[in-house]
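User: Can you help me understand a structure? I only have the sequence.
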Amino acid sequence: MKKYLEKVKKRCYTTRVVIIFKEARSLSKIMWKPGTFVYPIPAAMISCGDMENSNIITVAWTGITCSTPAKLYISVRPERYSYNIIKNTKEFVLNLTTKELAYATDWCGVKSGKDVDKFKEMHLTKEKANFVKCPMIKESPVSIECKVEEIKDLGGHHMFLADVLAINADEKYIDENGAFDISKCNLIAYANGGYYTLGEKIGKFGYSVQKKKK
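Assistant: Let's start by predicting it. Here is the structure, written out as tokens:
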């Protein structure tokens, strides 16, 4: 009888350990190998070249690197048609994209400028920039003129670190106070292979510590 009770006790203990282990696993994250998973991020159309000979490449590997002075980066594979254009001219324009530009954004990312005129095929309008020879995309709500400062070989991609020379915003998105109303643009973001519209505004920078109005 004693051996039987010990056997039952051992079985119950083992069952309890298995249950606890399963519960722990259900609460933990699943580990994947290293990869690109910082989402969402901008889906930007990068225009390069000049007003006569230009191209557009869509990139998602982009972002701010410094606020003062203003700097940003784009990462491009060396085999891409636009890579040598940007490398040689040391300039580009980063054009933010919208829901209305989603199709063109994707198309310009999968087609090569050596085969097609992307401005012509996507019915996009070239607009003269202020400080660079690259055309801005008129249909974009915001076009950012950039001058390449440094090129870093990171492996599969090379990073173009650039100074922001000017920000050109469509006046139809400027409110009565002279501020840019980004909520009216229908900007899109890229996440894990998909394009997404932005959701509703749920707060603003510093709102967590802002004193409530009496």
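Now, to help you interpret it: The chain has one domain: 41-197. Confidence is low (pLDDT under 50) at residues 17-21. Let me know which part you'd like to focus on.
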